[in-house]
Amino acid sequence: MSAELDALINIVVTGKIKEAKEATNKCLAAGHTAFEIVFDGLAKAMDIVGDKYEKKEYFLPQVLLSANTLYQSLDIVLPMLKDSAEGDVDRGTIVIGVVEGDVHDIGKNICKALLSGTGMTVIDMGKDVPIKDFLAKAKEVNADIIAESTLMTPTLDGMKQMEKMLKEEGLKGKIKTMIGGGATSKEFAEQIGADAWTYDAVECSRVAAEIIKNR
Ligand code: B12
């Protein structure tokens, strides 16, 4: 941790949107990698914001402001993450998105950047994506993996739905599924029959590369 990273965390937590880019550049100038900025800085800032929201110290407008401040920084560091990520260079196609009913896309975007770094073709469906659209796109591009993200409990059902639809169409096992995001867990993934679950974006790209290698 450094004074520069601390300052960036503080800027995100307090939503000082105009100061985020400069603070990010200062972190880079101080020698922090894009990876450190994302995982030791921005992710930590969102944890603090989440705590404040839970304790009712923050309400949605403040959370949104923090998220938008974080995006100012992500705009600078995510492309660098893509360039610097290590991983399997084997090709493969992954369709990623946030499931229908959920607009939380920060984690999904970090996963996307690291997945791109593995050399895979990453198709980003965005947020609030109907399950049938995920599947239609995956079929269209002959995807190896569908990666679904959700941070909300009510939208977990979409992931269950995905497994059901894949089975109905005889595609279960042919297109692998990966799930993640705060509302998910390893147990939930096992329960619905998803092929993989990971806690964070680093593992997400590692596991995806492994799936491609073994396909
Ligand atoms: C920022 C935020 C928002 C922002 C989102 C901005 C944006 N563009 O994303 C805004 C203000 C819009 C928002 C809105 C709402 N929010 Co909100 N929000 C948060 C907050 C504070 C942080 C989330 C975040 O970005 N975390 C940081 C990222 C980096 O973490 P992550 O997404 O988990 O991603 C990592 C891993 O999970 C993994 N990963 C992620 N995706 C994937 C996918 C795959 C395939 C894999 C393998 C791995 C993986 O890798 C990532 C990086 O390592 C959380 C609190 C918290 N502690 O999580 C609440 C939280 C998620 N929100 C919550 C709620 C309830 C809402 C609202 C419904 C509030 C309302 N009453 O309107 C709305 C949602 C509207 C909707 N329909 O979606 C609840 C959800 C509760 C639940 N379990 O259902 C939380 C948990 C807060 C709480 N404690 O109540 N929110």
Describe it for me?
The protein is an alpha/beta fold. The protein has two domains: 3-80, Orthogonal Bundle (Methyltransferase, Methionine Synthase (B12-binding Domains), Chain A, domain 1); 93-213, 3-Layer(aba) Sandwich (Rossmann fold), CATH 3.40.50. The chain is 56% helix and 10% strand. It has helices at 3-13, 20-29, 34-54, 60-84, 106-116, 131-140, 156-168, 186-192, 201-213; strands at 93-98, 121-124, 145-149, 176-180, 196-197. α2 (20-29) runs parallel beside α4. The radius of gyration is 18 Å and the shape is globular. The N and C termini lie far apart (40 Å). Bound molecules: cobalamin.
Number of domains: 2
- Oligomerization: single chain
Strands, total number: 5
The CATH class of the largest domain, by name, is Alpha Beta
CATH fold group of the largest domain: Rossmann fold
Largest sheet at a glance?
Answer: 5 strands, parallel
Question: Which ligands accompany this protein?
Answer: cobalamin
Strand arrangement, largest sheet? 2-1-3-4-5
Average pLDDT level: 92
Radius of gyration: 18 Å
Q: Catalogue the unreliable spans.
A: none
Taking the alpha carbons of the first and last residues, their distance comes to: 40 Å
The structural class is alpha/beta
Number of helices: 9
State the helical fraction: 55-70%
For this structure, what is the CATH homologous superfamily of the largest domain?
Answer: Cobalamin-binding domain
The H/E string reads HHHHEHEHEHEHEH
User: What CATH architecture label of the largest domain applies?
Assistant: 3-Layer(aba) Sandwich
How would you sum up the global shape?
globular
